[in-house]
Design goal:
Aminopeptidase, Alpha-Beta Plaits, four-stranded antiparallel beta sheet, 2 domains, alpha/beta
């Protein structure tokens, strides 16, 4: 396909997104107004899949044993690649869509619909994967473990942020719940008969803080107390804290976990308490496919959007797309929403305002045009896949995968 034909097709894709703009806005605002926490995104699942069903996609609900997940598939002409557009739609406790997942999920759906509308003979298969529980639980990790990503040549999503970036990384992470067990007693008349689970918990916070100077500078450990006792005149018998531990990669995260858990166990032993440690799924670091990110950047620049360099250090979080990026070529670019930072009330407001609707339109267009590049340009697909296979081989030779 020559450049003139490529540009003409992309114009049709952009017009197809604009034609569905009102519909996409309505979906994103519905999800924003009714935030649902991880694994409970029932309304969002329905709102996102209804237009896909109407457009003739083959829609499966509850895949990989996740009740609020979905897979919507449309195949154009045979012989092309399989491209997955990843939809997130869970919210945060108390502050709702302060990470803009109402926009992420809707943009993925909008991109898929626009591709089918504008390119009915597209050589390839487009899959919208509804991936619940990114914030807490790791729905994509479950999907990876259950083989949902098998056979997918490339996967992508687009996240709102306060900067437009295509190659921002992410840390490996794991959440851990520390449950401390002590012994109840009257805190005034018989304190000597008690063992304070709260003291053990506080000691654990102090011990973890003492470790920070002995960690690499990119390590992040942060936690909250979810149960601190029942009454001030009763020695607490059970207390609980939830932490997230992060490091540059899964291997370094293992060292952080070992040090932190040892400190927590000793903190409990020091006051005669015990502690149970329960881990969630491990989020892997992100492997951005540079070739595919370059395609995405060109499509952003086509729309007049300036792309910024990612931070040299710091300024990154974690996402379960990291696990996807270990299995296939993947990108997780960002489009600027405003000056607010994610996980704040200000960002949640923007995700439901006009700024969010503009970002939604741009994200859907960039996703659709990048998926089109992979399907319509065999050389672009070859370079994307070659980069991923070379990366996988290097990891294998380095002993980091089996």
């Amino acid at each position: 396909m020559n450049n003139d034909e490529l540009n003409r097709q992309k114009q049709w894709i952009e017009r197809a997104v604009d034609a569905r703009d009102e519909q996409l806005r309505r979906i994103a605002l519905q999800i924003h107004a009714h935030p649902e926490l991880s694994f409970h995104e029932h309304q969002a699942q329905r709102w996102l899949t209804e237009p896909l069903v109407e457009a003739g996609f083959d829609v499966e609900l509850g895949i990989a044993g996740l009740e609020t997940s979905f897979r919507a598939t449309w195949e154009g002409m045979p012989g092309g690649p399989t491209v997955a557009l990843l939809a997130e739609y869970d919210a945060l406790p108390a502050i709702g869509h302060a990470c803009g997942h109402n926009l992420i999920g809707t943009a993925a759906v909008g991109a898929a619909l626009a591709l089918k509308d504008a390119c009915p003979e597209l050589p390839g298969k487009i899959i919208v994967l509804g991936t619940p529980a990114e914030e807490e639980g790791g729905g994509k990790i479950v999907m990876c473990n259950e083989g949902v990503l098998d056979g997918i040549d490339a996967a992508m999503m687009c996240h709102p942020q306060n900067k437009t970036m295509v190659l921002r990384g992410a840390l490996a992470c794991v959440d851990a719940t520390f449950t401390f067990h002590g012994k109840q007693a009257h805190a005034s008349s018989a304190p000597e008969k008690g063992i304070s689970a709260l003291d053990a918990l506080i000691n654990a916070f102090v011990a973890i803080n003492a470790l920070r100077q002995f960690m690499k500078e990119d390590v992040r450990i942060h936690g909250i107390i979810t149960k601190g006792g029942d009454a001030p005149n009763v020695v607490p018998e059970l207390c609980e804290a939830v932490f997230i531990l992060r490091a540059a990669n899964v291997e370094e995260l293992e060292t952080v976990r070992e040090k932190a858990y040892r400190a927590v166990r000793h903190a409990a032993e020091g006051v005669g308490a015990t502690v149970d440690i329960a881990e969630g799924l491990i989020y892997a670091e992100r492997n951005n496919n540079k070739v595919m990110a370059g395609l995405f950047q060109k499509n952003l620049e086509r729309m007049g959007i300036e792309v910024s360099e990612p931070p040299q250090k710091g300024g990154v979080g974690s996402s379960d797309i990291g696990n996807v990026s270990q299995l296939t070529a993947a990108i997780h670019p960002y489009i600027r929403l405003g000056d607010a930072t994610t996980h704040t009330p200000e960002f949640a407001r923007l995700a439901g305002a006009e700024e969010g609707m503009i970002e939604l339109n741009r994200a859907a267009k960039a996703l659709a045009m990048t998926a089109f590049d992979l399907c319509a340009d065999p050389e672009a697909l070859r370079r994307v896949r070659s980069e991923f296979e070379e990366w996988k081989q290097q990891r294998k030779e380095g002993g980091r995968i089996g």
